[in-house]
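Reviewer 2 asked us to include a model.

Predict the structure of this chain.
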Amino acid sequence: MTEHGSKLRVSRRGIVLAAAALAAIGLAMPERALASDWPNRSVTMIVPFPPGGNTDTMARMLADFFSRKYKQTFIVDNRPNAAGSLATAQLAKSKPDGYTLMFGAAVQTIIVPMMQKVSYDSETELQHLSIFGTGPFVLGARASLPANSLSELIAYVKNNPGKLNAATASVGGLGHLSTMLLAKRAGLDVVTVPYRGGGPAISAMLAGEVDIYFGNASELLQHRANGKLKLLAVSTLEPLKQAPDLQTVASLFPGFEVTSWNGVIGPAGIPAEIVTAIATTTREASQDPALAARLVSVGIDPMGSSPEDFARIVAQERKILREAVMAAGITQQP
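Predicted model (structure tokens):
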């Protein structure tokens, strides 16, 4: 081979390598630019619950905060079908670019996958970004029930087996699972009565049709002052700020902790810069005086967690909620 031919081959090889390198840079650049420029267009925030409830209200508060900060539209898109499992499946399969998010709860990422087969893997296809707020569950009782604390309730039920009935807002919901977990830990015989939502369940308890109801603190606190029902215990490890005199279930059964969290979730693989931006902004929103006051007024504790803390909380809840699902006798449906 001539010296000229050898140089020509080397030169061509160099051009090919250089072109490949430029192509790789070209492919990588848009992703980095996208991450650093997020958001440069509207963002959809899926809410797997109907409009008007606590989750929807919190989502709209947070979306408004994001919109004001980033000067972009954050659209709240309510998709409540099939306990939110269809919406969650769509989220899991969406592009991990930070433009499709979900403001969801444990129902979609923990409970539903335990009770039925879903088309997404909540442990590998979803990314938990930040908890906006948490809501403890409170055990309420009809005013005429001869028990004024959890300890007295347990003694009453054991002396009157088979006579206690508990309202549930939805089979497999956190309130139902909290009730069954308490019954298991305390060795109680409880008959559950399902209702279509927290409102009807509380109305039934106020009317004396059922004895107890484990519901969101935001649902029950407003009824305490009028004396029409009693609050017996709270599901968190620490006492409830709005009612510090309430006994914690954990004081009798260590480790008992069930909370209702609402937070931002995305498909796995969102660039780290966007994850940081979402978590940081959610924390800022939770610390905003006006937003924090609105949350606290309805029994919600502002949080603004890091992704790492969010993932740790979810891992812990999977353990206790798995026990609760088994206590409720719920088997996974096809």
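The chain has a mean pLDDT of 88. The radius of gyration is 25 Å. We have added this to the supplementary material.
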